[in-house]
Specification:
Layout (H helix, E strand, L loop, with lengths): L6 E6 L3 H13 L4 E7 L3 H11 L7 E3 L2 H6 L3 E4 L6 H8 L12 E4 L10 H5 L3 E7 L6 H6 L5 E6 L4 H13 L3 E4 L5 H29 L1 H8 L3 H4 L1 H13 L2 H4 L7
Parallel strand pairs: 1-2, 1-4, 2-3, 4-5, 5-6, 7-8
Antiparallel strand pairs: 6-7
């Protein structure tokens, strides 16, 4: 592992989250924080990563070996699906790990998983943390555009000053904000985030159903208005009300009506 104080980041996992972070960080061209390697088990994913990074990927190692990717860095981002985080961490921090773990920091980005899934890294002496973006990632390019001012739910050992400073540096680079989430409260935190994101989108989809059933022919043919646009004014004003009033007050009518 590199022994200087600059953050050299390895991103394990080429999904929308990993590539959003890779592109957002690389576009900043910050000499003190850079992406040095990206790994994925799939050639297709790596080719997609090369295409998305484009001109910013010239100095990045794209590789299928997680251990070798991690060995190029001093800051490891595990951006895999939740059920693979522990497996990947254990794969990297094995007896074959010949570097100084005390110089290494390891992050996962799951809203649900506790930092315990990084115990093999912690046991080896690395600093560990979770830095969960409270944000949906529909596409890489759009996510990069809207990443600024994102709130990150962060979990770490409060006695680890090094990891706290790294989180501040990363949040600053990404123009984000942080809120501390207790490790044993992660499940409740994740439930709230899911309701506010995926379930809310699902409710909007349900709301479009009656519009499809009763109004699409006349509205679409006469006014060329897609059915989802018909509920946009309600969606927008409801969001405005929730942002500016306590939620109970923001409810405009009783559901029984």
């Amino acid at each position: 592992m590199l022994k200087n104080t600059n953050l050299k980041i390895s991103i394990i996992g080429c999904g929308r989250l990993g590539l959003t972070l890779a592109l957002a960080i690389s576009r900043e061209r910050n000499p003190e924080i850079s992406v040095v390697s990206i790994s994925s088990r799939s050639d297709k994913s790596l080719n997609n990563a090369r295409e998305i990074l484009g001109e910013y990927g010239g100095n990045i190692l794209f590789i299928k070996d997680n251990f070798l990717a991690a060995s190029k860095s001093n800051c490891i981002f595990i951006c895999t699906p939740d059920d693979k985080i522990k497996e990947v961490c254990d794969e990297i921090f094995t007896p074959a790990f010949k570097f100084n773990p005390s110089e290494v920091s390891v992050f996962h980005f799951s809203g649900l998983k506790k930092i315990d899934v990084l115990n093999s890294a912690k046991a080896a002496g690395a600093s560990v943390a979770c830095m969960h973006p409270i944000k949906s990632f529909a596409s890489v390019y759009e996510s990069v555009k809207t990443l600024g001012d994102t709130l990150y739910g962060v979990t770490y050992d409060k006695n680890d000053i090094k990891i706290q400073n790294i989180i501040k540096s990363l949040a600053g680079l990404l123009k984000g904000r942080t809120i501390f989430v207790e490790n044993d409260k992660k499940t409740l935190y994740h439930i709230s985030a899911c309701i506010a994101s995926n379930y809310l989108v699902s409710l909007l989809d349900i709301a479009i159903g009656p519009v499809n059933a009763f109004f699409v022919p006349s509205f679409f043919i006469l006014f060329n208005v897609p059915c989802d646009k018909l509920i946009s004014p309600l969606k927008n004003i409801s969001g405005f009300n929730c942002n500016n009033s306590p939620v109970p007050i923001a409810i405009s009518r009783r559901l029984t009506r």
